[in-house]
Amino acid sequence: IAKLSERPVYVFNELTIRENINSYRDALNLFYPKPSSLFYASKAFLNLAMGSLLFQEKIGIDVCSEGELYIALKAKIPPSHIIMHGNNKSAQELRLAVQSNIHCIIVDNKDELFLLEKVCSELKLQCNVLLRINPDIEVATHKYMDTGTKESKFGFYADREKIPEYLKKVCASNYVKFKGIHFHIGSN
C-alpha cells in the first residue's frame, strides 16, 4: 500500500479555468457572432469536481467512453450538452449514450454507424449523428497526435465515397438522424 506522500496530487486553479472559459466565450462572440457552444474535452481531465464546474459554467462536454459519460451525467451535465466521440465505441457505450439522450454521437466508420442504427432500433430511440471524415491533411505535430492523415485510424477515409449509401440505409430506419460532418486534424 502506497504511503500518502507517494500518491500523486493534482492541483487545479478553479479561477484560471473559469477565466479561460470566459476568454473562449469572448473570442467566439467577437469573431463568430452566431450561436455557438463550448465543449470541454473530457480526455484532458475529468472527475466530479471538474464536471460540476463545467455544469456551473454551462459548458458542454465531449466524452469518449462509458466511464466519462457516467461521470458527466453524475455531475448533472445535461445530456443535451454531451457529445460522444471515439473510434472504438462498444455496443454498451452506444446504448448508454442513446438511452441518456445525449446531444450527438460522432461516428468514425461504417461498422459503428450500422451498430448504432441497430442499437437505436432495438431501443426504439433516435440519435443525432455527425460523421467524422478523415480529411487526409498533414499537420506539424507529433505522429501520435496526428489524426487527420489517411494512415490515421480515425474517421471515414477509404470508403468515404460510399457515405451517401451508408446514410441512406441507416437513416431509412428513422432512428439515426444525420446532423453534419466532423473533422479533426490533430490533438494539439
What is the topological layout?
Blueprint: H1 14-31, E1 39-41, H2 48-56, E2 60-63, H3 66-74, E3 82-84, H4 91-99, E4 104-107, H5 110-123, E5 127-132, H6 163-171, E6 176-182
Parallel strand pairs: 1-2, 2-3, 3-4, 4-5, 5-6
Structure report:
The two termini are 36 Å apart. The chain has helices spanning 14-31, 48-56, 66-74, 91-99, 110-123, 163-171, and strands at residues 39-41, 60-63, 82-84, 104-107, 127-132, 176-182. Helix content is 36%, strand content 14%. The chain has six helices and six strands. It has a six-stranded parallel β-sheet with strand order 1-2-3-4-5-6, with helices on one face. The model has no long low-confidence stretch (mean pLDDT 84). Helix 6 links the parallel strand 5 and strand 6 (176-182). With 188 residues, it is of the alpha/beta class.
In whole angstroms, how far apart are the ends? 36 Å
Structural class designation: alpha/beta
Tell me what portion of residues adopts beta-strand conformation.
Answer: 5-15%
H and E string: HEHEHEHEHEHE
Total number of beta strands: 6
The strands making up the biggest β-sheet line up spatially as 1-2-3-4-5-6
Largest sheet: 6 strands, parallel
Q: What is the mean predicted local confidence, pLDDT? A: 84
User: What's the helix count?
Assistant: 6
What characteristic shape results from the CA principal axes? globular
Uncertain spans: none
Q: Roughly how much helix do the residues carry, as a percent range?
A: 25-40%
Our Rg estimate from Cα atoms comes to 18 Å
